[in-house]
Amino acid sequence: MSLPPGFIDELRGRLSLGQVVGRKVMWDNRKSNPGKGDLWASCPFHQEKSASFHVDDRKGFYYCFGCHAKGDAISFVRETENVGFIEAVEILAREAGMPVPQRDPKAQEKADQRSVLADVMEQAVQYYRMQLRMAPAEEARAYLDRRGLTAEAQARWEIGFAPDARQGVFRALVEKGVSPDLIVDAGLAARPDGGGDPYDRFRGRIIFPIRDARGRAIALGGRAMDPNARAKYLNSPETVLFDKGRSLYNHGPAREAAGKGAVLVVAEGYMDTIALSEAGFGATVAPLGTAVTADQLQLMWRISPEPVIALDGDTAGLRAAMRVIDLALPLLEAGKSLRFALMPQGMDPDDLIRAQGAGAMRAILENALPLVQLLWRRETEGKVFDSPERKAALDKVLRDAIKVIPDPSLKSHYGEELKELRRALFGARRPAASGRRSGKWSAAPAPYGQAATVTGGAKASMFAGGAAGMEDHLREAVILATIVLNPSVLAGFEGELERMECADPDHAALRDSILHHALAADLRAAVSDDLGQGVLEKLLAQRHVAIVPAVRRPGDDDIARMCLAEELAKLNARRGHAREVQDALEDLDGAADEGLTWRLSQAAAALDRAGRGDGEDKAEYETGQNGARMRRDERTAFDDLLGGIDFAKSSKRPR
C-alpha cells in the first residue's frame, strides 16, 4: 500500500525542515545562518558537545558529521518519534495542513511505472549524447559552436542530437530489450493514427534533457535544425513522468545555487538558461514550452522569495511579462514577489552576454523592476491622461488590478506605491496653505479660533478665523468625513481635495492621508492606521458632521457626491472672494481710489452670495451700505475689516 504519486513531494515542499528539527534541538547561533537556511546543532541521535548536526533548510536534508545520520523531514520524524513511514507522513501532513489521501492500492504500481520510465528516459539521453558525436550531427555541432558552447559545456548540460531517422531511438532501445510500449509511454515515440510501428518524436533536432528537482530524466526538449520545421522547439508530451506546467528546466542545480545566495533568474528557454548559467548565473530556470503557470510560480518561490523574470526585449517578451503580472497578483504574499529584468530591444540574455559580457547582464538584473512598477508601466506607457475621465479610468484599472491581492497589508502598500507613481506622472502640487511668499503681506496657517495676521496693515482678517473661519472649519470637516465614509466617490473630487487649503493641522493631515491612501481597498482603515483611530473618531463625533446625510447613510454615492459638490463650491467661492479682498487690501496705501472701492464692494456682494444657501433664515440678513445683502455676522466682520473706508465716495465701476 502506498500514497498517490506526488503527495510526498508536495508534503516535502510545504514543510520547513528547520522547523521540524527545531522542536528537538537547540540551534547553535554562532554557526547558523538562518537567512540562508544553514542551521547547526548538537546531534539528537548521539551524545556530543560540539554542533556537528547540519540542516540545509533550502534543500530539505540533514546530515551529522559525527554519526553520519542523514535524511529528510520524514526520516527525522521516524527516527525521533519511533514511528513508521505512514505514521510519520501523517504527523507531518497535519503540521502542513494537508489531508492525507486514502491509500491507493494502485499507487505502488504507478510509482514503479515512474521508476521504469525514468530509466527508459535515461537510456534515451545517453543514446542522443552519443549521436551528437556522429557524422550526421556535424551541422548541430557547428551550431552549438556558434552559440559559444564548448565541448565541456555540452557535456555538463548533456546535450545530444536526434538524427533525422524515423526509428532511431526506438530501434536502439528495443535492441536493448526495452518494451515498445514503454518507449511510447515515456513520450519518446508515437504510434501513427492509422496503425503501424511507432516512430520517433524527435528527429533532426538538438536534444536538451529535462530533469526534475531530484535529477531524474523526465522529458526532452528539441531544437529543430531545419529552418522550415513546423516547430522550432518541441518538448516531450505529457506523460506519467512529465507535467510541463509543473516542471522547470534546470530545477535541481538552480535550487542548489540559490541556496548559496545566488539570485533566481527565470529565462525563456534552454539556450538562455544555459548561457546564463555558464556566465555565472547558476540559479537560472526556464518554463517548458508554455507561459509561466501558477504551479511554476510556487516552485520558484520555494527556491527563492523574489525571482527575477528575465525576458527578451521584444514585443513577445513584454507580452509574456505582462501576463505574468496578472498571474502573480492573486498569489502574492508578504515576502513573496517578483522582479522583472527587461533586456535591450531585440536581445535575449544569450545575445547580451555574448555581445557585452556577464557584467552587462548583472547590471540589468540588479536594476530589475519590482512588479508594482511594471504594472504601472503597463497601464500608463504610451497613453495620454489629459482629461479627468482618462485619469479616473486609470484609477479604476489600477484598483481592479490590485484588489485581487489577498493580503490586506500588501494590498495597501501596493495602493500607496501606485499613488506615489500617479503623483509623479500628473505632477500634482498643492497650493500653499498660507498667503503670498513675497509682497506686503503673508499669513501663516492659524489654529482654529485664532485670526491670522496681515502685515502691512493693522486690520485683523476674519477670513482665517472668527465667524468665517468657523464656517470654513465646519465645511472642511464635512468634506473629509464624507470622503472617508464614501471612498468610492473620491476619484471624482481628488483634484479639488488636493487644492483644498486647511487651516486646521488635523484637517490638513487627514487630507494628505486620504490622498496618499486613495487606492487602498479600505480607505478608512488605511487612514486610521496612518494617523491613529482617535483622529477619525474626533472628526465623526462632531455634531455638525454626524447629522450630514452622507455621514448618516454612508454608501449612498449620489448623496455623497451632492454633498461634496455643494460644500466644496461654497468653500471655494467664499475663499476665492476673500482672496479678492486681500488683494485689494494689498494695494491699499492710505486712500481708496474708485477701482479699489468698486473691488471691495463687489467682493462683499459675492461673499454674501457664496455664503447664502437655499432655505437659510432670511432674518439673518440685512442690506449693507453698498446695497449687497450680508449675514449679520459677516457684515460685522466685513465692517471691522474695511474700517473707515467710505463706500459712499463712489459707487461707480472704475473706467
From TrEMBL:
Belongs to the DnaG primase family. Residues 609-621 have a biased composition (Basic and acidic residues). Keywords: DNA replication, DNA-binding, DNA-directed RNA polymerase, Magnesium, Metal-binding, Nucleotidyltransferase, Primosome, Transcription, Transferase, Zinc, Zinc-finger. It is an enzyme of class 2 (transferase). Binds 1 zinc ion per monomer. It catalyses: ssDNA + n NTP = ssDNA/pppN(pN)n-1 hybrid + (n-1) diphosphate. Gene3D superfamilies: 3.40.1360.10, DNA primase, catalytic core, N-terminal domain, Zinc finger, CHC2-type domain. One of its GO terms (cellular component) is cytoplasm. GO terms for molecular function: DNA binding; DNA-directed RNA polymerase activity; zinc ion binding. One of its GO terms (biological process) is DNA replication, synthesis of primer. Residues 609-635 are annotated as: Disordered. This is DNA primase. InterPro entries: DNA_primase_core_N_sf, DNA_primase_DnaG, DNA_primase_Znf_CHC2, DnaG_bac, DNAG_N, DnaG_primase, TOPRIM_DnaG_bac, TOPRIM_dom. Pfam families: DNAG_N, Toprim_2, Zn_ribbon_DnaG. SMART domains: TOPRIM, ZnF_CHCC. A zinc finger (CHC2-type) spans 43-67. Its cofactor is Zn(2+). It comes from the Bacteria. The keyword RNA-binding does not apply. Monomer. Interacts with DnaB. NCBIfam families: dnaG (TIGR01391). Contains an N-terminal zinc-binding domain, a central core domain that contains the primase activity, and a C-terminal DnaB-binding domain. Transmembrane segments: none annotated. Residues 262-344 form the Toprim domain. Its EC number is 2.7.7.101.
